[in-house]
Amino acid sequence: MNSKGSQAVLAVLLLVMCTVKAENGDISFWRNNFKMICPEEGKWFKKGELIPEIEAKEYEVVYNASTKGIYHCEYENEYDEYDDSGNSVISKKIVKYYFYVQGRVCENCFELDANLLTVAIVVDMVGTVLMMMIIYRCTKKKSSPAPHSGKAPARSGGRAPPVPSPDYEQLNPHSRSQDPYSFLNRMG
86-145: per-residue pLDDT in tens? Predict the structure, then answer.
């Protein structure tokens, strides 16, 4: 492996090892409502204005034209710092977590989870295969019949019609050429 290839592999490994778990907020729609979940308990803002009397981790609102837009929650995050003498000092920092809300809602709608849909498809396929195997095994013949002889089975009943059957008449070549669709008129 050349030096550029090994450098690329090293860079990818360092990026994978040094990834930091992001703070996870969430938003979900259920029927006419939407719910936002802040990573920590904090204050909620809509379009930069404080929403009074709400300091919680979750905020649920009925969705309509006036409630869509930009929301954010603010919460304090504590972290360790070291001062000049090397002592650990706990500092607080205000963190803003933003949400942009726009969607379609209805009374009889619900959000479909991709994992739930995948599980439903897999269970359906496995159930279908199992049902096919059960039907195949139940309809499979338990014993085979006696071997067939080379002759056709004997027919009971009357005689067969004579070889030149009187039910069918030979075509008449004179009447055949006089039929309306038996000739072709060429135009032009």
Answer: 777 777 888 888 888 887 777 777 667 788 899 999 999 999 999 999 999 998 866 556
Question: What are 46's two structure tokens?
Answer: 């809509």
Chain mean position to CA 36? 24
- Please tell me the distance from the alpha carbon of residue 71 to that of residue 34, in angstroms, as a whole number: 12
User: CA 8, CA 17: separation in Å to the nearest integer?
Assistant: 14
Distance CA 102, CA 33 (A): 12
**Cβ atoms of residues 39 and 25 within 8 Å:** yes
* Alpha-carbon gap, residue 64 to 107, rounded angstroms: 12
Element (H, E) at 116: helix 114-139
HSE-up of residue 91 (Cα within 13 Å, Cβ side): 9
pTM: 0.43
The secondary structure of residue 179, as a DSSP letter, is S
Torsion angles phi and psi, residue 131, rounded to 5: -65, -40
Number of other residues whose CB lies within 10 A of the CB of residue 59: 20
